[in-house]
């Protein structure tokens, strides 16, 4: 049986700002650029009391918390701290799977440093993070990734929660189904229509009917309701996609931001040059003024071989957008996905895909 940790830094960006500027300590801090087009990158716990959350528009955060201190993000500094934290992780295990700059899974089934238990290892890691970075982290300890992720959020901030194998069923049974990763508002409503509100309800629902209604996700729901997750911790996940996006100062019509597409295509192209893998699919991401997200993508017979080719494909994807010509957009992004090793490339036919979201490359700094 595996022993898995999920370690999550507490309000990471905001906590780094409060650590480095004593005048911010104890105050509601919002990490974001000011302006009508900006969104919140992070919020301190003092700001969260007012309902401020990451990804919400900065203007809304300012309305919710007029006394908030807005601090522009400094990702160079956050990445440096993230590297410090990852070095601490690697003292204990080589099996570290970063999810972002501020969280990761660790498999400590066979730790590098002798330890009486996974719980003791988690305590040691949290203590070292506190001593060496002056920041706090919360951790979950469990037999798999699904449960460890839930556990790390249980006693936040600066907390530790353990789910032992004998406790799994009792722990999961009363939880709302929204605690299962992938169950958003839409899926939660669909499950509620079936009389499923808790994980216990889900466990009692026939597996065959779940799979019939929701396909492979229904099968995954059946397993998660029983606390089953066989995914290993994967420390060397290859890059799946690379992208760059930007929010306009003012909403624009579809053919008014060609210069932005060209600029973002160049940024994405330069980023792809830093990996040994080759991406095949070009993706154009758009967000309307009403916050509807849509993507259009194209996979040519051969991977884009130059910036000019990548840019031409990204620009041409605008013709695949079938919204009214008067539609205005607040954001555009250009990405490359479908990465493979250079020796594994095989010719495939062209493929158009309409999606509602764009995959993001794994952040591998932590």
UniProtKB/TrEMBL annotation:
> At what residues does the UniProt record annotate the site feature described as Substrate discrimination?
13
Q: Per its record, what are the GO molecular function terms?
A: DNA-directed DNA polymerase activity
Q: Under which main EC class is this enzyme filed? A: transferase
Query: What SUPFAM superfamilies would the database entry show?
Result: DNA/RNA polymerases, Lesion bypass DNA polymerase (Y-family), little finger domain
Localization, UniProt: Cytoplasm
**EC?**
2.7.7.7
Cite the record's note on assembly.
Answer: Monomer.
Query: What role does this protein play?
Result: Poorly processive, error-prone DNA polymerase involved in untargeted mutagenesis. Copies undamaged DNA at stalled replication forks, which arise in vivo from mismatched or misaligned primer ends. These misaligned primers can be extended by PolIV. Exhibits no 3'-5' exonuclease (proofreading) activity. May be involved in translesional synthesis, in conjunction with the beta clamp from PolIII.
Question: What NCBIfam families does UniProt report for this protein, alphabetically?
Answer: PRK02406.1
Q: What is this protein called?
A: DNA polymerase IV
């Amino acid at each position: 049986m595996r022993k898995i940790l999920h370690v999550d830094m507490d309000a990471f960006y905001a906590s780094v700002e409060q650590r480095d500027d004593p005048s911010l300590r104890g105050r509601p801090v919002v990490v974001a650029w000011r302006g009508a087009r900006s969104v919140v990158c992070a919020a301190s716990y003092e700001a969260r009391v007012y309902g401020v959350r990451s990804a919400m528009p900065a203007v809304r955060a300012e309305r919710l918390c007029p006394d908030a201190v807005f601090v522009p993000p400094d990702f160079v500094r956050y990445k440096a701290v993230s590297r410090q934290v990852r070095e601490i992780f690697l003292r204990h295990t080589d099996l570290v799977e970063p999810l972002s700059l501020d969280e990761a899974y660790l498999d400590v089934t066979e730790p590098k440093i002798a330890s009486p238990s996974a719980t003791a290892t988690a305590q040691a890691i949290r203590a070292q993070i506190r001593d060496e970075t002056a920041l706090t982290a919360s951790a979950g300890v469990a037999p798999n990734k699904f449960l460890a992720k839930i556990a790390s959020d249980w006693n936040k901030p600066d907390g530790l929660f353990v789910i032992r194998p004998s406790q799994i069923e009792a722990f999961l049974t009363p939880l709302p189904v929204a605690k299962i990763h992938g169950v958003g508002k839409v899926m939660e409503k669909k499950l509620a229509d079936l009389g499923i509100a808790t994980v216990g309800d889900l466990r009692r629902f026939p597996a065959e009917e779940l799979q019939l209604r929701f396909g492979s996700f229904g099968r995954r729901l059946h397993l998660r309701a029983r606390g089953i997750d066989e995914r290993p911790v994967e420390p060397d996940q290859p890059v799946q996609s690379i992208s760059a996006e930007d929010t306009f100062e003012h909403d624009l019509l579809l053919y008014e931001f060609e210069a932005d597409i060209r600029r973002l295509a160049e940024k994405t192209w330069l980023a792809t040059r830093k990996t040994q893998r080759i991406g095949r699919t070009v993706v154009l991401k758009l967000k309307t003024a009403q916050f509807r997200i849509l993507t259009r993508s194209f996979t040519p017979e051969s991977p884009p071989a130059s910036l000019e080719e990548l840019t031409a494909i990204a620009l041409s994807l605008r013709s695949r957008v079938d919204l009214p010509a008067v539609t205005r957009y607040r954001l555009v992004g250009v990405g490359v996905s479908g990465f493979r090793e250079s020796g594994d490339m095989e010719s495939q036919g062209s493929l158009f895909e309409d999606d509602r979201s764009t995959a993001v490359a794994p952040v591998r700094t932590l």
